[in-house]
Amino acid sequence: MTTLASxxxxxxxxxxxxxxxxxxxxxxxxxxxxxxxxxxxVWEAVEAFVPWYSSVHRGTGAKSRISTEAYEQARTTIANFxxxxxxxTVIVRNTTEAINVLAHALPPCTRVLSTPAEHxxxxxxxxxxxxxxxxxxTSQDHLLATTLKALQERRTDILAVTGASxxxxxxxxxxxxATLAHQHGAQLFVxxxxxxxHRAIDMDAxxxxxxxxxxxxxxAPFGAGALVSRSPLxxxxxxxxxxxxxxxxxxxxxxxxxxxxxxxxSPNVIGAVALAAACEALDMEQAEARELxxxxxxxxxxxxxxxITTYQMWPTHHDRVGVATFNLAGYDHHVLxxxxxxxFAIGVRHGCFCAHPLLTHLLGVSDAxxxxxxxxxxxxxxxxxxxxxxxxLGIGTTAQEVDTLLASLMALQTR
Length: 415
Description:
Distance between the termini: 31 Å
Number of strands: 17
Number of helices: 12
Largest sheet: 7 strands, mixed
Shape: globular
């Protein structure tokens, strides 16, 4: 059996919660893909910085200067974490805001190419442009082939894809996609919300032009994320206000250069410091090695349980982050998730994971059923939506926790 290095310390990892039998059990967190706990090193960095917190950029006091330096250093640290040696790093709230900032900054009718496998955050903002959606990719080769065909058929400005699926975990061939995009005059945007917490990223080496990530998925849930671009960002800011301008007159405005242009209002300095602390503390090579072993244990265990159906986009694709989505015969997804929590103190996710087109395809929802659900929702009713359960791993996950989930599912299956 593979010996795993001890996981780093996370705040709250020893919390116990009450179960329905009256017994308090240690909480088993298998919901990292939604939000991660706070890394102890991040908490320590925040505690050290808080006494020095002040306004940034225009204050002359000592605390203001120290806060400004910390904020700008955070920007550099985040860029280095994803391998962007030059360009612009905009500090935002999360991946969703980062994608909206980029989409809003692009010229109207920018030609965007994407896929139906995306999280809603990497789907809805692009609909303000000239968006073309590829067929759902059935394999890595199919993705590359359909992307090439679409790039050859019409000019494209932005190819917008996930780095790793938040539903099924497949890691996408980013270097190959970047090469295709650049050969046809397009830039590559990557939603790295699920990739950044699991794999080392080098934007320069991979050829990624723009990338978004969230602190709350990277062990720094203090309300900060980032949009990192390897070229200067121009265009119209999503949020308009103080700090984003050089000059305002009665009827005109001269915008500041990026990144300040896209950071109107008082920024989340503490969130930026926390995110930078996570970027400095995380050892991504160790995180990947631990996760690969644990994910193999999880997937093998699920496959061995009668009545479990697991879902993958690319069944023969083995490069996946630690995400497993499944259903258990005899249980609605929300009931299964609730039973795991109430009886075994296991935290998982259930539903459609903000990826409705992908999950309805994986579940085999018919067009007729999809139309019925749409009509019900349009009429103001609340139909039960299809879904699944998702267990997701992180740097604090242990082999014992994976085994606890598997044993709990087997216990529920026998009932």
